[in-house]
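In this supplementary section we document a worked example of the pipeline. Step one takes a protein sequence of length 171 as its only input; no multiple sequence alignment statistics are reported here. Step two produces a three-dimensional model, which step three serialises into structure tokens for compact storage. The input and output of this example are shown verbatim.
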Amino acid sequence: MLDALPLPHPFESRAGQAALRRAVPGDADAVIRLLSDDPISAARGDLASEADRPAYVAALMEILAEPSNDLLVVELDGSVVGTLQLTSIPGMSRRGSRRLLVEAVRVRSDLRSSGIGSAVMRWVSDVAAPATGAAIVQLTSDATRTDAHRFYERLGYVGSHRGFKYAVPRS
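The serialised model returned by step three reads:
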């Protein structure tokens, strides 16, 4: 886990007072539901299947045990309504700059456009990046997520690169 992150972080949204905090093992089911609540994730196999639960729980435990990773959740009225993963990456380029990678940003579908995502992403750039020594915050977003692209651009993110992925065949 990224020990330098100042958490929990309370914030106000149009849906009410919320808090960004580090995920704990008991949050696994809520995070699984957030992933399956997204049509693109669901199409990739994030279906909240009980058979897949052990794999998700193992991944959560691995993320929390890794010093350069963290999984955060947003809590509102006692329920987990958002999540994101942060990874701190040392690098050689840009004169040895550290990057903060943002992955799997999700807000529960009925709470999108409530200000939760904006507050979380502003915290990432304004608080988490400096706390981890990052010179750059970077993220990828599926090419079909045009609404997400507009969201990130409104927050000052620039679509500066083209990403590539390779799916490793499972044996």
